[in-house]
Amino acid sequence: MASIGKINTLKVLKLTDFGAYLDGDDLGEILLPNRYLPEGCAEGQDVAVFVYFDSNDRLIATTETPKGQVDDFVSLKVVQVNQMGAFLDWGLPKDLLVPYNQQHRKMVVDKYYLVKIYRDLHTDRLAASSKLDKYLDIWPANYEIGERVDITVGDKTDLGFKAIINERHWGLLYDNEIFQPLRVGKKTIAYVKNMRPDGRVDLTLTRTGIGKVNDFAPVFIQYLQDNAGVSTIIDKSSPELIQQTFGVSKKTFKSTVGNLLKKGRVTIAADGIHYVANPQPKKPAATKPDTRQKPEHKTGQAKAKHKRSHDKPRAKPASKKTDTKGTAKPQEKFDWSKRSKS
Fold first, then answer.
1. Domain 73-135: which topology?
2. In this structure, how many other beta carbons lie within 10 angstroms of the beta carbon of residue 67?
3. What phi and psi values does residue 156 have, to the nearest 5 degrees?
4. pTM for the whole thing?
5. What dotted CATH number matches 7-62?
6. Strand 272-275's sheet: what is its strand order?
7. Of 27, 112, 158, 166, which is the most exposed, with the fewest CB atoms less than 10 Å away?
8. 3-class SS at 240?
9. In this predicted model, what pLDDT tens digit does every residue of 235-287 receive, in sequence order?
């Protein structure tokens, strides 16, 4: 079944002078005007089209790709304001309406606003709303520290940028941790830095530790490939230049270059850092011969000889000669029978 406000793949039922009719299933036949008809289109062929209502509120198909579909959060420019509301340029001939009751604050021509595209359940018409809170989860967020998430950058605040996480929750990117240009509506990857007690989420655009190095490595290699394999920005360059060029800190830059150098992916010369397209595997380091004397393993014969030597009685040690000079003679016993009678 075809979905209004979405890109669908539909089958061509028949060709006419003013276009092709596509099989919209429950929606009936949907006209694809001649100006959007692919070259060589034939009956029975499948065509990828976006289905919406034209300025006469007729269901129509187009091969043009809008800047957003139903349920998307996108940043769009106001091109007109009248008594009905504000009209946004979303890449199709018919502009997208934001009714006054769906404007978070009054919209101004030529300004960009982050909006949610939705399908009105009563009229089936497509519209947009800048009252984003009602489309996000009211329950506290539950993410793991360091978890990778998809974000859509929101409005600027005093602390940094608000961001929609996985199209479900609000998060915050702090100014002092942003090293790349951001704009409202930009879709990118972020990481959960902290979960606050109130359930709100602090985000960071780069991972910490070795994860940050691994994330930046392919970016730096791509930069080398796009610049004839050489980077004149080196570890001696200023932190400001590194942040402005790559969007990372000097510490991350140096760690990444060092890691790539160990892997043989880059070399460092006087004119900069050079990319190595086909790094050769490193040869294992030559091992020095072990000159230490190894203990002799005794054979059976040697063990028997060793046992016999232990079985022999030990010779008594020779008695030491004692020097009798200056030693006292042993005292003779007194014979009482020879005592004189006087």
1. OB fold (Dihydrolipoamide Acetyltransferase, E2P) (2.40.50)
2. 17
3. -80, 140
4. 0.63
5. 2.40.50.140
6. 230-231, 272-275, 266-269
7. 158
8. helix
9. 889 888 887 788 777 888 888 888 888 888 899 998 999 999 877 766 665 66
